[in-house]
Amino acid sequence: MFQRGDGSVSAQLRKEADSLLASDPPAAARRLAEFWAREPGAASAGFVVSRFEKLRGTQRLIPFRLAIERSFTVEPAIPLLRAEAFAAGIDLSVQVGNFNACAQAFLDPESALYRFEPDAVILAVETREAAPELWRDSAKLSAAESHAAVRRLTTQFRDWLDAFRRRSQASVIVHGLELPPWAARGVLDTQSEPGQLEAIRQVNRELGCLARDRRGVYVLDYDHLVARHGRLAWHDERKWLTMRMPIAAEHLIHLAREWMRFLHPLTGKIAKVLAVDLDNTLWGGIIGEDGLSGIKLGLEYPGAAYRGLQQAMLDLYHRGVLLAIASKNNPDDALEALREHPGMLLKPEHFAALRVNWNDKAQSLREIAAELNLGIDAVAFLDDNPVECRRVRDALPEVSVIELPPDPMEYARVLRECPLFERLALSEEDRKRGEYYAAERQRTELEQSMTTREDFFRSLAQQAEIAPVTEATLARVAQLTQKTNQFNLTTRRYSEQQIAAMTPEDGWRVLSIRVSDCFSDNGLVGVAITRDQGDVCEIDTFLLSCRVIGRTVETALLAFLAGRARSRGMRRLEGWFLPTKKNAPAREFYQQHGFQPVRQQEQGTLWALDLEKDTVNPPEWIQVTAREGA
Amino acid sequence: MTANILEQVQSIAADILMVEPDEIGPQSSPESLESWDSVQHLNLVLALEEKFSLQFAPEEIDQMRTIGEIAGLVERKIGQ
């Protein structure tokens, strides 16, 4: 009755961790993490933290300094937080500020907060402390007084944040304000102007705006956290009155875990791809035995549980997390289910990599990571089968194995709780990442289905648009010269200012190329910079993003340069190939297109094409359009 | 007092106070253990509440002077 998990397994893990501490530190760390996953709580935290402290130096732990400025007793949550962090590979040093000394901590440059030099600071203030007028006196406040209180709080938070940013680049995690369990005006609160609850929500909305407008500031929606776990159960009023500890013992772990949702992305401890099993994970039943009509998936019980998990995965997909399948199945059965089943939310195009075979799943996960060009530690694995989970955990300790509980109705919650998928920013690139990888997979499949390369190129139906650099594309063009390493003939890095200074009056031409095909728009993926001097056009820069290498786009761009140079009256097209450690893919480029070596120097070779005799044939399968000025 | 409850309380206290289990006995108290300060006292109270699914009254927390007294209190509360 006293153990949450299976007590004997936990006791065994604890014993093993202790006995492995000296002889096999990585194994000891894994036992400790598993013990903590089974027995999280105040009682085990001391044990887990003290053992991990002994493992320091033997494990690759990310050190992180966290300051907490607070209005209430957070101390009992610290061992829980540190145990949770250790289990995730993070070695947290925590400094807790004095009670209600936030203003001094943030505004005084000599405060202990700044002397601690934190990587991040959490600002945890209770509504009753930060806004006593809204918490306690709300019933008698006039509308004007209430608005004034909201303004006072917003200004105070803004002043603290801006003062902090002047002195520290550390991240700031601000607790939003909590709503009281009962409104001062009772049921009439919603119709008051503004009511107590609405006034507090206004402060929270303003906090969100402050965070949006500032780098490295994030809001922890504390009220949402409390509501998730039940407001009446969350609080322990007696401990508040005696020890300034407002949170019931059983919920401290939930506060620690909510903090971890920020610390995971801040320390880079995140998963970039989620690889999932199919049978009894993505749907109920076994497709190979139950068939398309027999598997459970849809809007009713029990299929809704699996659909719930699919919805959670779809949300991750839109967050930029890649999805993959690692399943032991007949590939035709599995793909038919993904394509045809009416209850399926996830379709084949949502998956960046598929491994549906009878191989060992550890092998499948290795292949998935390699195919997506990711480290194995970027992989998270979700499977209902504990045997598969154990196998992966043993073979690939770097993979994050997300264990599913026996009840499928819990699956979606477990995935949504996982902090490995939290992100603190979302770029346009992140949002499109899943689409890009899925299109890439379809291209590979198309290529494999075609007998010749030419057939493949034709069926891709590529379209290229070549344009002179503009105000709108300058940043991307400069970025490509700075980032592109593989297909880059000269690897000359240019800033935006340098590119803007390359004017046609001095013979410069800066061109960019956008490429799309039947699967997706690849965007602006190539740059060519040339300079006319006398009757020679020299290619200063020629580069292509690795996204489109090998699809003859490079030939199309070179043919375009040659054609334009000839029509400007140039007699020769010249270009250096300057070898680096990484640009081997471009080494044969000039030679393959009929250029002759004309000068050999230590740093590279100058190649030339006689425009009066020779030409570069554009590939017939790419439709090229030129914007004005190109 | 059953040996089982006392043992469990001693084991929890050893983890919380970060000492070896054999350094803790029924007579152990904040006076005898250096690491047993007010923060650790609170941590111990919370761990016991969590582990035994019970709630201590503020008056009871004030009376917890030794491991033996704490174990006795836990046993009485479980029996209620």
Protein structure class of chain A: alpha/beta
* CATH domain topology of chain B: Non-ribosomal Peptide Synthetase Peptidyl Carrier Protein, Chain A
* Poorly predicted sequence stretches spanning 5 or more consecutive residues of chain A: none
Q: How many E-type strands of chain B? A: 0
Count of the domains of chain B:
1
Query: What fraction of the residues of chain A are assigned to beta strands by DSSP?
Result: 15-25%
How does the helix and strand content of chain B classify structurally? Answer: mainly alpha
What's the total helix number of chain A?
A: 26
Would you identify the CATH H-level superfamily of chain B?
ACP-like
N→C terminal distance of chain B: 14 Å
**CATH-scheme architecture of the largest domain in chain A:** 3-Layer(aba) Sandwich
Q: Total strand count of chain A, please?
A: 19
Name of the CATH architecture of chain B: Orthogonal Bundle
CATH fold naming of the largest domain in chain A? Rossmann fold
- Strand/helix succession of chain B: HHHH
Number of structurally distinct domains of chain A: 4
Q: What is the oligomeric state here?
A: heterodimer
Write down the overall mean pLDDT of chain B. Answer: 89
